[in-house]
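Appendix C. Worked example: Winged helix DNA-binding domain-containing protein
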Amino acid sequence: MGEGPRHIGTAERRDRLALRQRLAGPSRAESPEEVAGSLVALHGTDPATVYLAVGARLADAAKTVGDTERALYEDGTLVRMHGMRHTVFVFPTELTAVVHASTGRTVAARERATLLRNMAEAGAPDAAWLTEVEESALAALARRGQATAAELARDEPRLKEQFVYAAGKSYEGVHTVSTRLLKVLGVEGKVVRGRPLGSWTSGQFRWAPAPEHPALDPAEAQAELLRRWLAACGPATEEDLKWWTGWRVTEVRRALAAIGAETVSLDEGTGYVVAGDAGPVAGPPEPWAALLPALDPTAMGRRQRDWYLAPELRPMLFDRSGNVGPTVWWNGRVIGGWAQRADGEIVWRVPAGEGIGRDAESAIAAEAERLASWVGTTRVTPRFRTPLERELSA
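Step 2, the predicted output written as structure tokens:
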């Protein structure tokens, strides 16, 4: 009788996470591009998360803001766009075609159909009118290079037109064509988020033409995206993969088969790694600590999290919608949370009973000092507040 799949235990999974997600000291990256490549996607719903996630993983954290802005807005090696689960992420630019074909097209078709239906219900102009406005707006954006919605509306005044959404219902509202149309163009891969109007924490973005990319076969793109993520973040369960991608389970299984993923045994059941990756890692890294931001992809990247996040910590570290707040890590597990106070001080707390020891306390304090050194006078408040973050920052 042959041997079954190799078992990868919790300790080894934490070692893989430390090394491959650039969290242990020796594995830290030299550039934001290296960080994004190692994680596949940086969560971009909260603009500050991108920078805080990069800074936690750079060997020289002092370069965080300047190098990330260069990559996003000068070199164009990173791009902020809609991706999995209809969420905004920052991706390596070479992945834009893969992301759009694997996840964007389905969402885009649904979003455009919804916009046209909402406009028709409100008695607004038809699809032909919307197409004219879209083409005019895209031409204006191409001329400008980057622009806000208000700037585009000066070139194409029809973008300012409004229509009533859900008339007569409790959630009735007035929508502007520019807001809804630019969102649709974003998920269609025609426009991306450009440089913000304010600092690196600002949520007021300009829009920019999307990088040109070839049209890919959706199934092939799904296989490539899943292969990259498993290589960086595996092993993972089928449930993890379905949650992260937002795909149907049949699509996940098809992509796993296409890349020849290997089956492994995990404490919670069957897991998957890319072909040839089932063997043990080189060795456990040295002890490490990290202060990761709200929505960080390491904390948010999986559906099943008990192997690195104790269930009893979740009520204080997550909001009611399931968004994680700032977390404190020690040797591959979440042990507490952190926040920034109004005076700029970085404060952290590990709930009583964790018993982390002096080495952990010293390492965490050093990470808090390292974070404060590059954040400087900037004040960072997570978009989604969590109970412990609110308490610490008060």
